[in-house]
Design brief:
Aconitase, domain 4; about 200 residues; about 15% strand; 7-stranded mixed sheet; alpha/beta; 7 strands
């Protein structure tokens, strides 16, 4: 998993509330267990017409936001079913951070396991960042995980809280497998000792 330390990037404004996981990645794209290749279907039903052509006014189809790395969203982002494909699709598109007033619990947890930082901020802070994001590609937002701040293009900064363990994992690029591998020497020692003391096992 890629480390997350500081991100300065284009933020796409998505003021919709209750953006659920089926909107993020519709159910017909859940057949794969690969984490790659889902970015092209991110927000599929909002991005494309029935004939596959792009819906021009959808934010991620607009030239200013095609390379967005941050989403500023309305309340309750990631609600709905608990599909891990939702953060996979966001990450494959290039989104590393989502900012909202609130997230669905399972989606929130899945983000950290896949290298995406979900930032919870008060409504007034999200409103400021949403307006800043509407300025387009020239207005870049900076997310500093170490300092736990989000800074708008106008220099206004907002602090956010984060669980220290989740912060440690993101900064060091540790998913569940990475956390286990940190203990590999202890695991090897335990296995060696167990095979000596209980060779019949």
């Amino acid at each position: 998993m890629d480390k997350f330390t500081t991100l300065t990037g284009i933020a796409a404004p998505m003021p919709l509330v209750n953006i659920d996981t089926d909107m993020i990645i519709p159910k017909q794209f859940l057949k794969t267990i690969k984490r790659s290749g889902l970015g092209k279907n991110l927000f599929d039903e909002m991005r494309y017409n029935q004939d596959g052509s792009e819906i021009a006014d959808f934010v991620l189809n607009q030239p200013a936001y095609r390379t967005a790395e941050i989403i500023v969203a309305g309340d309750n982002f990631g609600c709905g079913s608990s599909r891990e494909h939702a953060p996979w699709a966001l990450l494959d598109f290039g989104i590393r951070c989502v900012i909202s007033t609130s997230f669905a619990d399972i989606f929130f947890s899945n983000c950290f396991k896949n290298g995406i930082l979900p930032v919870v901020l008060p409504p007034e802070a999200v409103a400021h960042l949403m307006e800043d994001a509407r300025k387009g590609a020239n207005a870049r937002i900076t997310v500093d995980l170490e300092a736990q701040t989000v800074t708008a293009s106008d220099g206004e900064s907002f602090s956010f809280d984060i669980d220290p363990f989740k912060k440690h994992c993101l900064i060091n690029g540790l998913d569940d497998i990475g956390l286990t591998l940190e203990k590999v020497s202890s695991i090897d020692s335990f296995e060696a000792e167990a095979s000596q003391s209980r060779p019949w096992v």
